[in-house]
Fold this protein.
Amino acid sequence: MVILIAEKSDITRTGIRYILHELDKNQIVKELENPEKFRRTIEKEKPFLVFASADFLNDSFFLSIKNSKEKPIFVGINVDTIALSVFNFLSETIGFTSTKADILRILQRFSVAQTKEIFGKNDNELTTREIDVVREIAKGLTNKEIADKLFLSTHTIVTHRKNITRKLGIKTASGLTVYAIINNLIEIN
Amino acid sequence: MLITRNLKMADVIHMDYTLLPTINRFGISLGYGEKTVEEICQKHGVNVDFFLEVINSFHDKNYFPEKKFRAFSLKYIIDYLKNAHKSYLEYKVPKIERLIDKLVEVSDLKKQTFLLLKNFFQEYVNELKIHIKREEEEVYPYIINLEKSFLDKKIPKKLQEKLQVYSIGKYEKEHDNIEEKLFDLKNILIKYVPMQKNNNLCNNILSELFKLEEDIKEHSEMEERVMIPQVKAMEKALKTGKFDVEEI
């Protein structure tokens, strides 16, 4: 899950990134300096949380993303003088006097919600269906072939694959093959 | 702490010895005496500003001055990238291969599993080799040519024709994620290799994999954040004939 820092000042950007990194080393943090690229960057990186200064935030921006499905959560940086209409879109604000603890609280407030939403149940073991899919991937079948064989839609297989990758931390087909053999899901001939 | 030109090279190593392989890539080896970074660079004909930016971006993972990098000639950057390739193929990868071979050799029960890992790593190495070959034989020569024409403000006919059918955007699109296999291998080792007695060997392999991955990440950043944007700007200038590119 990506966090985006949209801020013109190098010092502020670096400071926020530094604190985020200290709080969670694995957090992917992207930075943006140029307000013109704001919308495009959000569409591309799909951050779940955006820290943005007043230079980036205005009515027309929020209007333009109003109808997009996956809207990030916005945290304002030094937005004391911002218009109320824009302020209302912000979930939190930080400023120069904010501490590490403030940022930690914001992270906790939103990442927990996010984690629950994505992971749903606490299920890190593969389901029987997912094991079936791993087995077929290991045999070298394509998504389409697996779908036909298991009487599922290709779309469902894609979803299964995403979940498998998330649970196992293995992205490539040949990596899954190694996994399948080690766990005796298939035999080598 | 940022490394500066007036520091003694020996102190730089005391501060962060993991920089040594990167320093070697500039053709600089141990035996620094009391010389400063600047003096050592001069002695080896290395551009000290470029050296400092590279070393600092390795030293501090949060430091990556795109703009400063973009001010250097692409020649420096490509030379550096090529040296990095060399160190992967001649040093880092063979080292991991030897460790995995050892693992296969000493294990008796799970030989099959480790042979699998060995094959898997070999697949990765092959992909890496293809990737590197393509960059060195196609992409880099194209960029060198492009930069030359850009500086001369003249486009030879050959390049003009090439520009009509080729652009760095093509390479960027295909700049596939070769790190995926490396990532998988790490997870297989960490999570799924059955318990056995060769802890030290496995630890060594893992730590080498982590190092290689970090290094390659730095490498891709240099390509994606510095080289490609710069090449794009030059392509644009050469196509439109407007050379006064102030801000690339």
